[in-house]
Amino acid sequence: MTTIMKKLLSSLNLTAFNLTTLTLISIFISQPVMAAGKIKCWRNNEGTRECGTYVPPEYSQKRTEERDQSGRVINVEKRAKTEAELAEIARQEELKKIEDARRAEQKKKDDILLKTFSTERDINMLRDSKINVIEGILTVTNSNNKALMKKLEIMQKQAANAERRGQKAPENIVSDIKAIEERLKNNMASIKEKRNEQQDICNTFAKDLQHFRQLKGQSAKPQKGKAENEANPTTASKICNTSEDNKVTEDNKPATTVKK
After folding, report:
1. Which of 47, 80, 134, 140 is deepest in the core (most CB within 10 A)?
2. Which helix (H) or strand (E) holds 72?
3. What is the number of other CB atoms lying within 10 angstroms of the CB of residue 71?
């Protein structure tokens, strides 16, 4: 027995003399010219380990071990991934791209937030200015509604008086009544839309303020001048506080039981 064979046998577990050992020995005996080369081992479809100087094509996608002339494993080639595994890898990579893009976008927003505002007061001032612009529009709309209501009341009386006299209300009065009612309807819808817009502004700036504190490493502690602001709240502060109170009330409202 050659020195190479002795090394091979000693490197293998002779107490568990198996097909791998027999295969390796037979390869070295039958092909001595390859003794100085490398042997590859794999498992067939039945799970039995086989070895040879090359891997058969039908097992080329399986895990293979490469051994040197002493029988020591010097390299391992992992099995090829299945289509399902490749699809999952692609899915995970796509999710990572999405998350990386989200983080980059958030970093951009954070930088803008810190560059735009130096203090919490700056955030509240911009919020108040936006709220006040809308509040001005609502003031004008409400004033117009009052004038329209007075005009509508006068025209409705005129129409009623005509009917009491047994006459048909003039067409121009009827037409004007319908036009005023339509304007009032549109104005009320506009008011509701503007109030919702104010609430959206309050919610947006509340989130910005909270995030600003997080970025600055600050807690929601009262700042200089805040006590005075709470004692004399601005119109915008009242609107936003009312919106928040309504939200809390809505969130705490007990569930309604529907009887069937």
Report:
1. 134
2. none
3. 22
